[in-house]
Amino acid sequence: MAASATSLLPEGRDSWSACSVGTLRQLRAASSVDAPFFREHLVAVYAKALDGESLDVDDAAIARAQAALRSLVVVTGVKDEQALEAMCRCLTSPYLAGSACMALSRIASKPGAAASVASATAVCSAHASAAVRCSAVKVWEEVAKCGEVEAVQSIARALEDRDASVRRAAVTAMAELTSESQSRHLDTAIIGVAKLLEHDEPSVRDSAVAALTSIGVTAERAVVDAVAERMEHPREDVRLTARRALELIFPQGHEAAVRAAAARLAHQDAVIRCCALEALLVIADQGQSSAAMAALSALEDSDPEVQALAMQLIQKVSGPRARR
Fold first, then answer.
1. Most buried residue among 87, 225, 254, 291 by CB atoms closer than 10 A?
2. Do 118 and 78 contact (CB within 8 A), yes or no?
3. Mean pLDDT computed over 11-29
4. Which among 257, 248, 236, 263 has a CA at the least distance from the CA of 211?
């Protein structure tokens, strides 16, 4: 009868964790029981291999750490915090970040593990290094593809990162989530991303527009509504950003975008009505009836500037609709 694993070494967690990987494997091969016991201590040994201070300078240590990362993917459980924390630490190493991203992504693909990975990597959003935050965004992208909403929200928050490289990584990640299979997760993202159109920093607003451009591919109606709503914002820079977003995200003549802008012509503030007409002058197509009707209605506006813009719009949309 095979010996029990607990009879093969002195008792005590420290003595087991001090074993080499090879020793534990030999012990596991000699025993037909206690598989969870060995898995737990293999995790401890592999995690310890990722704690070395020489990872950035010692090639041999880097190779051992990369091997440990690959092995951790196999033995890590769904909620193994020790393993996940060790992998997250590897995101801080320029030599191990890529391997750590792959390892975390593979663990996230295990049933029920995505939430644990999202939670473990959330701390990376506050790391001082932009490279680490970029690595975290890549992990969140893969976790989001597994259906974890928290990861989508983390990507949305990265759009307002202080570093342009992180914001670009977040925009790219959003673009990767716009496939049909992931569109069901984007409603949460749209709310957060559209809110960034109101950000004080212009570069953050630009990142939000870029992200919404990608999201609009599969969730165009929600994006139209979220962007058009910001055309009523009290701040002029936000209104201009929203207007520009409509122009950039949707093709000329896009019916939903035209109708959303036209709906702002009923706003009590003439500044908002002018903003809507300025948007329509760009996004409306020649011969588009919805834009023409909006312009005719605006001709009766009490504000002279609104009337002038309405006349310009009528001149633009008059005639047959342009062929594409």
1. 87
2. no
3. 55
4. 248
Q: Residue 278 is encoded by which pair of tokens?
A: 């300025």
Give the list of residues 6+ apart from residue 212 with CB closer than 8 angstroms, or none.
Answer: 190, 193, 194, 223, 226, 227, 245, 249
Q: Which amino acid is at 110?
A: K
Contact between residue 144 and residue 152 where contact means Cβ atoms under 8 Å apart: yes
**Mean pLDDT computed over 94-122:** 86
- 270-323: pLDDT as tens digits: 999 999 999 999 999 988 899 999 999 999 999 999 999 999 999 988 865 555
| Distance (Å, whole) CA 58 – CA 189 | 41
Residue with tokens 């896009």: 254
Note whether 287 and 322 are within 8 A (CB). yes
CA angle 291-296-297, nearest 5°? 100
Q: What are the tens digits of pLDDT across the range 78-100? A: 677 778 888 888 888 888 888 88
Q: Evaluate whether 214 touches 171 at the Cβ level (below 8 Å).
A: yes
Question: HSE of 19 in the Cβ direction (CA atoms, 13 Å)?
Answer: 23
Q: Of 82, 87, 86, nearest to 139 (Cα)?
A: 87
- How far is residue 78 CA from its own chain's centroid? 22
Helix (H, G, I), strand (E, B) or coil at 315: helix
Report residue 102 CA to chain centroid gap: 17
Rounded to 5 degrees, φ, ψ at 9 are -140, 160
CA distances from 65 to 1, 17, 83, 151 (A): 36, 16, 13, 26
Q: How far, CA to CA in Å, does 213 sit from each of 227, 234, 245, 317?
A: 11, 23, 8, 25
Q: What is the pLDDT of residues 192-225, one digit of tens each?
A: 888 889 999 999 999 889 888 888 877 788 889 9
**Average pLDDT of span 160-188:** 78
Instruction: Tell me the DSSP string of 101-124.
Output: HHHHHHHHTSTT-HHHHHHHHGGG
With a cut of 90, say whether residue 263 has pLDDT above it.
Answer: yes
